[in-house]
Design brief:
alpha+beta, 4 strands, 14% strand
Length: 185
Amino acid sequence: MSKKAQITILFIIMIIIGIIFKYVYKANDYFDYKYGLVNTTNDENIENTLDKNESEENYLENINEVLDLTNLYRNEVGLNQLSLDENLCEAATVRASEMAVANNLSHTRPDGEKCFVVLDDLGINYVCAAENIADGFTSSETVCDAWKNSEGHYKNIICNKYNKIGIGLAKSTEGKYYWAQIFSN
């Protein structure tokens, strides 16, 4: 199966899981996980926050580019490539969406819990994990460049403890992009 086909299947699974998460956990009545993006207009009709020029393919392209750049940085220091994990992608999408809804970049969840509680909420087993987040970047290349040039974020990228990654992207109603990477073993 091609890499593009795997990413497409992963994306469809993320949408389905997002819909289930919306109704089971009721984290926010206004979450719209379609395309991993949210809109939080109070008591108004919810509309997808994708611009007219954006598409599912563009979203998947961003996720794929973040994966490729992250693995390129790891290869530069002789580390194994990370595999894209659908459960971690769901967690990263939840985290990016939470920040987009709150319009606030934070490793703390809206309920005050630590970011890694999302892994527990989704039943994801892990021994160690890390989270990279960013906001305001409009392309995968610029966000990855920023993470590479940030000591703490770069340490997460090149940590040899991790072999899996989840990537999420969301856009606030104000049009600001929120990005999340979750690393695990």
